[in-house]
Amino acid sequence: MAREAYFLTTPIFYPNGAPHIGHAYTALASDAIARFQRLDGKDVFFLTGTDEHGQKMQQTANAEGLTPLALADRNSQRFRDMMGALDVSYDDFIRTTEPRHTAACQAIWRRMEEAGDIYLGSYSGWYSVRQEAYFDESETTVGPDGVRREPLGSPVEWVEEESYFFRLSAYQDRLLALYEDQPDFVGPRERRNEVMSFVRSGLKDLSISRTTFDWGVPVPGNPKHVMYVWVDALTNYITAAGFPDEAAPRWRYWPADVHVIGKDIVRFHSVYWPAFLMSAGIALPKRVFAHGFLFNRGEKMSKSVGNVVDPFALADQYGADQFRYFMLREVPFGQDGSYSHDAIVTRINADLANDLGNLAQRSLSMVAKNCEGRVPEAGALTEADEALLALADALPATCRTAMASFALHTVLTEIWSVVAEANRYFASQEPWILRKQDPARMATVLWVTAEVLREVGIMTQPFIPNASGKLLDLLAVAPEDRVFARVGAEGRLAAGTALPAPSAIFPRYVEPEAA
Ligand code: ME8
């Protein structure tokens, strides 16, 4: 039977600078979703990449004395490297400067034109180069320095140019019907409410081309114009699926199951993008899910404050798994969150080193010493044994439910509640005392503990792939058995299986000065 397709995307990032922790957060959360769905048996296509056109890229390149493409080449590679450093298992990395993408942009443009939704006009307004967007005068304010700025603080300038427009105003009712008919099209709920009130307040036609610079995809039939960077950027999602070749093998993945984005770009993904697709007669993505913003000890990150954190340094300092675990456990996915060194260390030492690492270490060393390094033989199971196994067996179902609303933190809470229960079980069964008094019962307790560790090891793979892999190695679980379908009675550890010598899966974090 063909496996169910699952297509998820990250935003394509601007490579006008190095990746920062915000980009890392989106990428590793998306990766956890992609890995989860693969382990749950889906045929996953996980897309990420870089958004390389636009005035901002051109200006940054000029300032650095580079061509825009040279700047994009250099920084796009850094994004790819970051994905590697954080174990982000993408299937395709798209760059908007690739020929396949130019073709897709021109094809969707022509379709929107054929639908009668594109016309030539002229545009004037307050434009922010940094946001690559026009703002209403009412949205801008003039600061004490005399500079007019948009709500997020970047300067705006008055721009007047001939421009193509997209008839967005014609899509208001269809968009509102979409949000009504598919209440989870935009999530979480706060974002949906914002989008609906924005659309209800009335949509103006959208300026979708520029003539003041040329670093972009040429408008078909009028190369004096380049496409507005957001038409170009959003189209990446269908380029990667093979558009306009609807016979392409990857077209089976479209429509995307979810576009994972940050809350700063909700409007582009849940208003403009579905309108473009409706116009072009292309199926809409199933969901758009916006996560919150990260703050450094509660402060907004900015280059001028000097608190922009380098994801490579974090992965180096704490370990990629540890950093991934922290970000996904600490911050409820969808809400804003904060991180700090102390919070990261507390999580690593409490949840990973103590709760999971120690339990594995203690129980598996007992197996090594007292059971000839083989999976012990379980005798009759007690109520306590059955109760713990039942909790662990239920994990795929409970985690799937949490994942259905992208509650990544809840998935982790569910798994760690089983880890906590396993610790309580191990402490109350006292296998180290049973060793002398009742070795057969000790073997049963060790088997139950190892079996629960197997199930936990499978379920934690989306979040901490390396440590989970190591744990499953210690339990001699075959690669093909490391899937959710093997959690439960079907996959039980077989008594007598030889196990490798136990070793620590999570070292405690020790401050360098104290080491
Ligand atoms: O917007 N906290 O690219 P971009 C959490 N190219 N996430 C953050 C963050 C923070 N402080 N800062 C950034 C673009 N992000 C466009 C996208 S898509 C068709 C085009 C994350 O490089 C978050 O996912 O500015 C946000 O949406 C994205 O980076 C913006 O990346």
TrEMBL record:
Q: Which keywords are on file for this protein?
A: Aminoacyl-tRNA synthetase, ATP-binding, Cytoplasm, Ligase, Nucleotide-binding, Protein biosynthesis
Localization of this protein: Cytoplasm
- Key word Ligase present in the record? yes
Any GO CC annotation of this UniProt entry: cytoplasm
| Motif placement: 'HIGH' region | 13-23
- What is this protein called in UniProt? Methionine--tRNA ligase
Q: Which Pfam families match?
A: Anticodon_3, tRNA-synt_1g
Q: Which PROSITE patterns match?
A: AA_TRNA_LIGASE_I
* CDD domains on file: Anticodon_Ia_Met (cd07957), MetRS_core (cd00814)
Instruction: Name all Methionyl-tRNA synthetase anticodon-binding domain ranges.
Output: 375-508
Q: What is its EC number?
A: 6.1.1.10
Native species of this protein?
Enterovirga rhinocerotis
> Where on the tree of life does the source sit, at the highest rank?
Bacteria
Where does it primarily localize?
A: cytoplasm
